[in-house]
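In the design runs reported in the main text, the only information available to the sequence generator was the tokenized backbone. The following block is the verbatim input for one such run; it is reproduced so that readers can re-run the procedure and compare outputs position by position.
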């Protein structure tokens, strides 16, 4: 919350869940935790970081889990679930 209000330091970044734009190979449109810099309250994904093979593997596992969770509740968001009848 602090960084949204006073911005991140120009030479650092924080992790924040934001809408994916496809960076680092994560599906576009998925809410995913990225390294971001905040300037005037706007979070921008930090690109070009060196990511180890181990970390890439873990990122893809997390992406798969998030997609499974999204798909498991998709019917609720589309108005077809019992909560919307």
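Verbatim output:
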């Amino acid at each position: 919350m602090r960084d949204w209000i006073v911005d991140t330091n120009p030479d650092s970044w924080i992790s924040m869940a934001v809408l994916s734009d496809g960076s680092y190979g994560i599906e576009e449109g998925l809410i995913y935790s990225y390294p971001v810099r905040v300037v005037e309250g706007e979070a921008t994904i930090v690109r070009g970081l060196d990511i180890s093979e181990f970390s890439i593997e873990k990122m893809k596992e997390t992406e798969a889990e998030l997609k499974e969770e999204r798909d498991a509740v998709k019917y609720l968001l589309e108005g077809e679930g019992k909560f919307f009848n």
